[in-house]
């Protein structure tokens, strides 16, 4: 392309972290059996030559891992690099290729801590590039399309999977074997079709430039762990997590974040010892925990996670606890973000 045409296109940086979108299987029939995090970012970009029609694209390999192994240090490393790039005058948008298992956690983390209105789009795939009907190429094409579109600015961190534009706050991996894997209880924000975005909704919760959190002020994250609620549950896991150093425990509760009578006394004790107790729900898609329903949260000084699933509640608790150790203040943050 001539220089004049190139100058008109947006500059998009692709930060690669691994996942199935960079995966490879033994044969084209292997859609589910393969190794994640094999291909480098240059190969990913070379695999979709049409990206050059959308933007001036360059890649950086930030890490090369399957996303189930993502650590808090990895989150910080990635978020700090995103912040540096977002400040650069010659970057208009950022795409992050990521494994789908914890993609919803990273997208929400970035949504909370990046102080920019430039588009940040997180993307993955359900099938490796070597499989028949691989979904990574189109997902990546859509991510670059959204990241280079001025309309995407100021809408928080976005996720492009299966032709949909989802809010990084709301979206969650709800299905693990289909390409239609990512859903939000509140619906997608828009669609991308043939490189063009169509928008229908805006996020109502605080994010990015309107967030009180800033990655530049965060150098470490407190330990927050999750324990699961089910019939016949005991308090063993909760006590062990606290003993292991958890500053907050997310209760991945049944229904409305309900807590078994066998577990309640231990959680009241742990709260007295300074551990934050955050009631979330593990119902698939559409958990919604009400304060003082099911449990007397005011009396116990516990927090409810609102509509955040347990893994997203962990992210918000870690970020919030870089600023406050007060349960009432944590609750305000859980309502607002
Ligand atoms: N589809 C995927 O990307 C799954 C993979 N285990 C990952 O999260 O890295």
From TrEMBL:
Highest taxon listed in the record's lineage: Bacteria
Q: Which GO terms describe its biological process?
A: asparagine metabolic process
Q: Which residues form the active site?
A: 20, 20 (o-isoaspartyl threonine intermediate), 100
Q: Which of the seven top EC classes does this enzyme belong to?
A: hydrolase
Q: What is this protein called?
A: Glutaminase-asparaginase
Q: Could you confirm whether the keyword Signal appears in this record?
A: yes
Asparaginase/glutaminase C-terminal domain segment(s): 223-334
| Originating organism | Pseudomonas mosselii
Similarity comment: Belongs to the asparaginase 1 family.
Q: Which reaction does it catalyse?
A: L-asparagine + H2O = L-aspartate + NH4(+); L-glutamine + H2O = L-glutamate + NH4(+)
Task: Tell me the SMART domains matching this sequence.
Answer: Asparaginase
- Extract the InterPro entries matched here: AsnASE_II (IPR004550), Asp/glu_Ase-like_sf (IPR036152), Asparaginase/glutaminase-like (IPR006034), Asparaginase/glutaminase_AS1 (IPR020827), Asparaginase/glutaminase_AS2 (IPR027475), Asparaginase_C (IPR040919), L-asparaginase_C (IPR027473), L-asparaginase_N (IPR027474)
GO MF, one term, reads:
glutamin-(asparagin-)ase activity
Q: Which UniProt keywords apply?
A: Hydrolase, Signal
Which residues does the UniProt record annotate as the domain L-asparaginase N-terminal? 11-199
Q: What is its EC number?
A: 3.5.1.38
**Chain positions recorded as substrate binding sites:** 67, 100-101
